[in-house]
Amino acid sequence: MTHCEGPASHRPDFNLRYGAYGLVWQVPLPCPEWRTASACHAPDVVVRYGPVPPVPPTDLTAGPLRQVTPEAVRCGLPDVAWLLVRGGNDILIDRREGADDGRVRLLLLGTGTALLLHQRGLLPLHASAILTPAGAVLFMGHSGAGKSTLLNEFLRRGYPMLAEDLAAVRLDAAGVAWVEPGVRVTKLWADSAAALGQPTAGLARVRPELEKFVVPVGGAALADTAAPLAALYVLSAHNEPNILLKERRDARKFNALLDHTWQKLVVKRMGLHTAHFQRAIAVANQARIVRVQRPDDGFRLKELADAVEVDFRANLKIAQPPNFTGIEKLRN
Description:
single chain; alpha+beta; Rossmann fold; 2 domains; nine-stranded mixed sheet; five-stranded mixed beta barrel; 7 helices; globular
């Protein structure tokens, strides 16, 4: 594993500060997906370029591209980079020669971030999140379930965005679940963008070969303070003609959280299985979790968003319109 020196943005002394998931990150490459943070803030997490040491023989494997111990996790993509994630505060990037910033960022902001959040005691979920007057509402699901498309429809309706694709849930000292602000972009496939009336001309692609675009979010459309978790909607498709919503109860709430945890297969090998289990139980006990099934022959975006909005406004007792002031109203 050879460290790639490269241009200035690839050097260890080129460091930028960003805020994401309640943490200040010091990163050696530009990450426009995250909010900028002042250089005067001491970093909680330091990301550096350098050679990742060889895999110790005591490491447990969790798939062909990961090696895991309770102290550290190695993961990577061929021809992109290897990451060494350690102690909840340190990520080492062994960058492959010729890899572009976009692909390195995808690895860092996805898998690398989720593993570090596990190490820090947060619950990283495959979910997008909006801010409502009752708190954070999450849209949870596997890849392709429609998390980002539904999120963008609620942005259009005036609900600020908290997170996209990766939502980090933190339990405070009293055991209350909070959702931390994540990225400040969404990602949309071309057909979803068209359904939302979102022009794609001039937008960056997630990867050059994909018809999937990065849509910046800013201003009042972006929530920048953690919010208490209010509800989660688990998105899926079925072969019935109607949209169905059914609240999950008992063990099914807990299982939904486990099933949609980022990097769930390595949690036990990280020595965090018990802690993760306890966090999932605590979140399941205080949040409303609803299964949402839509017809598999079409997304029917407006109808789906209407059904979800009616449900959370009624069950979370939201009487005021979505153009509320923000987090301060949650505290008053």
